[in-house]
Design a protein that fits this description.
With 107 residues, the chain is mainly beta. The chain contains one helix and 13 strands. The chain has a domain of 66 residues. Helix content is 5%, strand content 31%. The strands form four sheets. The chain has a five-stranded mixed beta sheet, with no helix packed on it.
């Protein structure tokens, strides 16, 4: 994590190996970038989010509750709750629905 701004991670999240959560960013304008300007935007990851291996979460992104982000995705924009997203940049592939329900054994 590069947490120059707040990073909020909800409960029961699954974050795989090599995930990068990066709040720091730089201006596109060459002049302030040349003199080293840097700023940050907060990241929010809601409850029960699953980030697959090597996902990169970019500055200012919010990922909604129950969302799954596939391995290697680069999340550049907000993702709503209850979707599966993947790719570079990450795109919503589908909503999570009845086809994803499995029987959870009781303890």
């Amino acid at each position: 994590m590069l947490d120059v701004a707040p990073v909020t991670i909800g409960t029961v999240c699954q974050i795989a190996m090599r995930v990068q959560i990066r709040t720091a960013t730089h201006p596109i304008d060459p002049e302030p970038r040349h003199v080293g300007w840097e700023y940050a935007e907060p990241i929010t990851i809601a409850d029960n989010v699953w980030l697959g291996g090597a996902v990169i979460v970019c500055p200012g992104v919010t990922i909604g509750q129950d969302t799954v982000v596939g391995a290697g995705a680069v999340v550049t924009k907000d993702l709503p709750a209850g979707v599966v997203a993947a790719g570079v940049p990450a795109r919503i592939l589908r909503e999570i629905g009845d086809q994803d329900r499995v029987e959870v054994p009781s303890s």
